[in-house]
Structure to design on (854 residues):
């Protein structure tokens, strides 16, 4: 696989047979390309692995197609489309309170209202030097005036631009909300403009945090927060009122604390000048009034009247449809991809085909962890995070896809990245090309060996199904979130991916329900069920995660910002939401490290008759001292049993890993007091557990607690003890005989 | 970020690394590696994959997003361990001023 200019994305990642999928493609304009439908069986291209395999599905997608060059515009902003009412005769002022985060990063627009040819209008912006500047254009005459005072990053300022058409004056005002001793960041400016006409007397939308599209191809996106913007039809010369007053020449006033989950901004002036947001700027962030007395925006939204705009925000690449694929009614459920090809360039756009509606074609369902794919989508861990080499214990390997991503930052960010202003990324969207959501992709954190991650690592599991000749249906996280347990009904065994880390409340409920109804679950991964995420209730294809308080994370949310703007949920660890992973699968995250993986050693308890089905054909006590993900079955991210965190009391610890290197370190949530000895060679809790337990409804759960497990399943062409053990469990789980909750090994002896 | 100053006293750890670049590292070698591997992004050594799992060219990370990764075209490896040893030598020289003749 290679990365060139040919790339694209699908409108959805999950379909039923008979559905239609929309493909949006970009390539060098006029270049022909071919498109095919393939079934992804095994995507690891490591020569030591079982071999890359995909099946070509004979379906004419209508190609060859002529490529169209499509671009992605990042940067969020607000727009008030129908701003005609804003036309004022002689005087206008635009006011806001702002918290810039990159005042020294070049010109950044706060407000812009320009007619189509940009000959008349007003703009308020931060100039190259970081000072607030106003610009007035009247029939091509441009007048600019700056305060000459540099704004400090992450400080609140009241700012205004004001124009007086009668006197012909343009004013700019910059006032810090709190004084900064010895810093001169309060400033005013005034300039002369032509007399008699207003730059606001135009028919044009009003933009916040960006300029309208222009010849320079730079819309001067703003990084930072805007709070309480309003427009007056009177002049402000040297001071700014704290709040707008209805009746005092108020033309428009946007209260960002209203309708926080939406992409609408609401005008409370009575003039109905509502606007909309583009590219998902961050809502539910602290405004200047936030004082620590309220942490939940749904309790008192007035603390949360700011919006944080970023020049690298992206929701929907908004590409035109290039072609559609009608999924044949007889196509078996599985993991498929639309493969784009031009010469040696290929690009895969994977998706899941489910069983036909209200039908099950297998007793096994594979839950494709698409929320976690989104959370990691286009991550820049190898490009932006120098410590990656340290935690991997070897040089970072960049692939063609990384090299492409580095020069195309417009492909957007994920939860492992920081915004250009250093703030955490709260929203992750799938409506954009994903370089790492492709078979064949080599990751960063997948351990020495194949170094596969997320989707491509999960093809070790789909490849295993193929190797053991077992058919399976597929559903995605998004299906699980939308449909709840209904999409799992009538499946006997649910198999997870290698790293199902991100879970919405509805997804978690669905799995709890599945288990409660007697479902059997095989959790073949690590670091699962860790973060709570909030899919947007209306916008498709986007999830929110604020990594509050704890957990391994790229950045901490700001104080008071722990609740999702999409839903009001507290989106930290599931553990902090009272539902640790242990309460679902018996194990929970304890450590991570990315160099070498270790084997498991069977426990005494593994001889319990309750586990008699598990070890058929397995001779040794040490299992999994081989594998494609770090050379062992226990590695990368490790989960362990912990009754205090909700592992059922009757759960059996079947085997535990040991011998992890000092690049394995305990998680922050387990490290209350930093003390020496937190590495794998010393900390006794750095160990993965294989756990099994029966449920009261006759079902059972089997968890391996390791991301590297699947890489060992695929070792030696799926012929090894880890694959055998996994097969034994699947076999027993497929058998309808209920599991007996009463542990047969526990006897009450009455002594004489 | 580590501010550990690598000195001549760390020389045995260089020998250890050359013998076994992929670890596990002794505590002393790990301390040296902690210093070497926490460079700031700009100019940090990385491998650019030419042929997956087979061949790599050494590269340097750029300071900012959007700037291409620099290729050091005369440093091509078909052995990962050799790449690790080469970068160790380069960093040893940069951090101690002394050439590592290993
Ligand atoms: Fe993870």
């Amino acid at each position: 696989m290679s990365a060139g200019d040919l790339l694209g994305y699908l409108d959805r990642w999950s379909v039923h047979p008979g559905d239609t999928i929309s493909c949006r493609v970009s390539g060098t304009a006029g270049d022909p390309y071919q498109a095919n439908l393939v079934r992804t069986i095994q995507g690891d291209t490591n020569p030591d692995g079982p071999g890359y395999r995909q099946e070509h599905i004979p379906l004419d997608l209508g190609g060859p197609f002529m490529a169209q060059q499509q671009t992605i515009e990042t940067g969020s902003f607000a727009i008030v489309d129908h701003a005609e009412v804003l036309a004022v005769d002689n005087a206008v002022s635009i006011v806001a309170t702002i918290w810039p985060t990159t005042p020294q990063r070049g010109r950044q627009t706060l407000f812009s209202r320009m007619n189509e040819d940009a000959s008349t209008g007003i703009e308020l912006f931060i100039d190259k030097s970081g000072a607030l500047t106003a610009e007035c254009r009247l029939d091509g005459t441009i007048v600019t005036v700056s305060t000459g005072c540099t704004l400090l990053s992450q400080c609140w300022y009241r700012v205004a631009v004001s124009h007086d058409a009668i006197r012909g004056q343009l004013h700019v005002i910059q006032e810090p909300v709190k004084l900064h001793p010895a810093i001169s960041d309060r400033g005013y400016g005034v300039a002369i403009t032509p007399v008699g006409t207003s730059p606001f007397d135009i028919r044009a939308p009003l933009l916040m945090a960006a300029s309208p599209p222009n010849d320079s191809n730079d819309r001067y996106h703003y990084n930072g927060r805007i709070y309480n913007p309003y427009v007056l039809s009177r002049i402000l010369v040297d001071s700014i009122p704290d709040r707008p007053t209805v009746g005092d020449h108020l033309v428009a006033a946007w209260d960002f604390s209203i309708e926080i989950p939406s992409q609408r901004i609401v005008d409370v002036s009575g003039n109905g000048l509502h606007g909309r947001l583009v590219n998902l700027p961050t809502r539910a962030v602290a405004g200047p009034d936030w004082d620590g007395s309220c942490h939940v925006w749904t309790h008192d939204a007035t603390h949360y009247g700011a919006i944080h705009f970023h020049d690298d925000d992206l929701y929907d690449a908004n590409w035109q449809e290039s072609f559609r694929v009608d999924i044949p009614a007889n196509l078996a459920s599985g993991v498929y991809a639309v493969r784009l090809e031009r010469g040696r360039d290929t690009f895969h756009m994977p998706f899941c085909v489910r069983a036909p509606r209200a039908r099950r074609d297998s007793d096994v369902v594979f839950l494709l962890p698409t929320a976690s794919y989104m959370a990691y989508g286009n991550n820049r861990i190898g490009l932006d995070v120098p410590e990656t080499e340290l935690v991997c214990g070897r040089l970072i390997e960049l692939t063609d896809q990384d090299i492409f991503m580095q020069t195309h930052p417009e492909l957007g960010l994920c939860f492992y990245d920081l915004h250009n202003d250093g703030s955490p990324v709260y929203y992750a969207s799938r409506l954009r090309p994903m370089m790492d959501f492709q078979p064949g992709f080599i990751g960063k954190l997948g351990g020495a060996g194949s170094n596969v991650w997320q989707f491509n690592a999960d093809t070790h599991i789909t490849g295993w199904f193929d190797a053991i000749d077992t058919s399976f249906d597929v559903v995605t996280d998004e299906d699980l979130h939308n449909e709840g347990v209904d999409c799992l009904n009538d499946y006997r065994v649910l198999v997870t991916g290698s790293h199902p880390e991100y879970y919405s409340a509805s997804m978690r409920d669905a799995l709890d329900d599945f288990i409660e109804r007697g479902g059997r679950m095989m959790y073949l991964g690590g670091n699962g069920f860790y973060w709570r995420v909030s899919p947007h209730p209306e916008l498709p294809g986007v999830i929110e995660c604020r990594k509050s308080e704890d957990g391994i994370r790229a950045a901490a949310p700001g104080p008071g910002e722990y609740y999702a703007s999409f839903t009001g949920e507290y989106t930290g660890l599931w553990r902090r939401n009272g539902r640790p992973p242990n309460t679902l699968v018996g194990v929970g995250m304890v450590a991570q490290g990315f160099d070498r993986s270790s084997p498991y050693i069977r426990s005494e308890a593994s001889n319990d008759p309750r586990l008699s089905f598990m070890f058929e054909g397995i001779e040794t006590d040490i299992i999994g001292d081989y594998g494609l993900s770090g050379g062992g079955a226990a590695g990368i991210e490790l989960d362990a049993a912990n009754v205090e965190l909700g592992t059922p009391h009757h759960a059996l610890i079947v085997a535990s890993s040991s011998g992890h290197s000092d690049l394995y370190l305990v998680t922050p949530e387990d490290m209350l007091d930093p003390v020496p000895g937190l590495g794998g060679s010393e900390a006794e809790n750095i160990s993965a557990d294989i756990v099994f337990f029966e449920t009261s409804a006759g079902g059972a759960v089997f968890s391996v607690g390791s991301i590297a497990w699947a890489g060992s399943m695929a070792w030696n062409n799926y012929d090894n003890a880890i694959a055998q053990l996994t097969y034994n469990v699947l076999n027993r789980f497929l058998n309808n005989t209920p599991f007996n909750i009463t542990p047969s090994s526990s006897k009450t002896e009455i002594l004489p | 970020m580590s501010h550990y100053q690598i000195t001549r006293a760390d020389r045995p750890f260089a020998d250890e690394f050359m013998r076994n670049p992929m670890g596990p590292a002794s505590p002393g070698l790990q301390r040296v590696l902690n210093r070497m591997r926490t460079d700031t992004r700009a100019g940090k050594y990385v491998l650019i994959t030419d042929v997956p799992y087979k061949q790599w060219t050494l590269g340097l990370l750029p300071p900012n997003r959007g700037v291409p990764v620099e290729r050091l075209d005369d440093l091509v490896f078909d052995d990962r361990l050799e790449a690790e040893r080469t970068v160790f030598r380069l960093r040893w020289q940069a951090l101690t001023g002394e050439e590592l003749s290993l």
